[in-house]
Structures are given as C-alpha cells and as structure tokens.
Amino acid sequence: MKKIKVLVVDDSSTMRGLIATALSSDADIEVVGQAEDPLQARQAIKALNPDVVTLDVEMPNMSGLEFLEKIMRLRPMPVIMVSTLTSRGADETVRALEIGAVDCIEKPRPGNEHNFEELPFKVKIAAAARIRPLTTESDRQKVATEARAAHAHYAPDGRVLAIGASTGGVEALIELLSHFPENCPPTVIAQHMPASFTKSFANRLDRICPAKVQEASTGAKLAPGHIFLAPGGALHLELSGAGDMHCRLRPGDRVNGHCPSVDVLFESVARTCGARAVGLILTGMGRDGASGLLSMRKAGARTFGQNESSCIVYGMPKAAFDLGAVEKQLPLDRLAAAIMSETSTIKKH
Question: What are the catalytic residues (predicted)?
Fold first, then answer.
C-alpha cells in the first residue's frame, strides 16, 4: 500500500520536529519534506507533490490563512491546520476550516503534551477526504441573500432541529446555516471540535448567519431564530424540559470517542421531543450520531442526511443511512430548503 506523503510547514524547527516525529511513528505515513514559511512550502509542494500538508496558522512572510487561500484556489489539496490556543489562533483556525482546511489540531502545551498522538489519524482521514473548491465571500453573500428572499414567508411550526457533524462540519455548517431565515427552527448542534475553538466558531456563525448563534449553556431556552452550538471539551449537550425546552450541559465519558457526542444529543432529543423534531447528520468520520438519529426516527422525527458526493468525509452520514436512521439523503446545497419546507406552517405544493 502506498504511503501517505506529508509536507510539514511551520516556522519553528522544534515544532516541525515534533510533527515529523509524531507522523513518522505511523508506518503508513512518510514525511517527504519540511518548510519554514509559505514561500518554501510553495516550492516544496511543486517538487514533492504531497498528499497532505500540515500548516501552521501563524507564520512570517505570509500568514497560514493567506497561503491556505492560495492553495485552495490554485491547487486544492488536504490541509490540516496546526494552531496555538490564543484567541487569534482560534479565530484564524475557524476561518481556515471555513476556507477548506480538512481539520485542525492544537499545538502541545503543558498538561496536553501528547496532543500530536491524534495527528496520524487526522492525516489519514484528510488523505481520503473530498476537497471542495474554494467558495468566495461574494458568492456566499449572494447565496445567503437569495436564501433569505426564498424564506421571506417562513413560519416555524414549533419543531426542534438537531444537527450532528464532525470532519468537514465547519464548512458544511457555515453553508447550511447561512441559508436559514432569521426565524429558523430552534436548533441545537453537536460538532466535534476542540474546546478552544467552539466559542470562536459560534461567534463566526453568528456574524454570517441571519439567526442568533451562540455556545450552548445550561438553562438556555430554545426559541425560533436561536441556534445553540455544544461547547467542546468535557460536557455533553442534551435537551431538557417538557413545555419550555432548554439546553443542559452535563459531564460524562466520551461516547463513540467524542465529547460532546452527537448520539447523546440525538438520544435526548428523541426522549424530549419525539415527533416534534427534525434530525440532520452531516459530514464526519466514524459512527457518532447513527444510533441516536435512529432513535429520533423511531420516535416519529423526520430525519435527513448529507449525501456522499457533497461530504468531505462520508462516514457518519453513511453509518446512519446504513442503519436505516436517515429518511432522506440530499446534497448540502439542498438541505436548508428541505428543512425549512419541512418545518414551516406554510406548506408549498
């Protein structure tokens, strides 16, 4: 089996060494080159033709974001962003995932010295990912304007929307939610993401989406036009309540390797909402969310899945579809309209 060729780009020789060591521990991966800035990296990409690039967010000469945009415009390929835990680092990492980076990983820090142990697994996922063409900001704004016009007469019917996503989910959620109207269904989301990035992601979504987006907190009440994103880290997001439903964060072990877990969220929605819900599973690696979405469908909820051709990684949606949890599969660019049609009191014929 051919090894996955990786180019490591980081201005720190120490960090390049740590990344190369972590990747070289996997027999299926070969570090074919290292570069200390985007100018060297550009030449290395031409000469070495790597399968995956690891890219530092903050670098001299040209920022990681600028370089990523050039890569995705001129030679789209799988990129994993390597980020510090600074506020700026988190914001730029979220922006990088929006531009088209497949995944991100935090640089090791005291108390988390072994963080790069996940890197070989992330590289393997990235190598098999579908890389989508770069969407420009003007294109996104045009689509969002059209979506708002299309949903001008949307009237929510009271149902709750629950969404699960993982690898590729940042890009998918930005595209999906920017098409939602200002008074969209009450929405809860579990996106696999490190704790340091979810607040930045919620803020980014809030800036570009018509609805109000924020990190979920215990007691936050569900209402039309409000979207709650599960914080990354050690807490699962659940729904609670009978009449006035609200978010609940609780500590717990990882489920399917994740906290927050999509399955935990979906199971709570099945228990709390029954048929008064809609479930959606988006791009991601693994099986998290499949059994929970099946519970939602059995409880009477309508369920959707992102189709294979529009997924960065068709893992979670495939697992849910194979289990019989997905009622309808659609490409990403048709999901918002389908969900709004399903949850509106005004039915179009």
Answer: 166, 192, 288
Q: Which of 288, 291, 310, 344 is catalytic?
A: 288
Looking up tokens 């060729």 gives 5
What does the pLDDT average to over 25-35? 96
Provide the token pair at 157: 């019917």
* Tokens linked to 189: 């989301």
In the chain, the domains with their CATH numbers are 4-127 (3.40.50.2300), 137-343 (3.40.50.180)
Does the pTM of the predicted model rise above 0.85?
yes
Catalytic residue among 83, 166, 200, 295: 166
Which among 179, 192, 236, 258 is annotated as catalytic?
192
Q: Is 192 considered catalytic here?
A: yes
Q: Fill in the amino acid letter for 192.
A: H
| pLDDT tens digits along 110-121 | 666 678 999 999
Q: Is 251 helix (H, G, I), strand (E, B) or coil?
A: strand
Both tokens assigned to 262: 């999509």
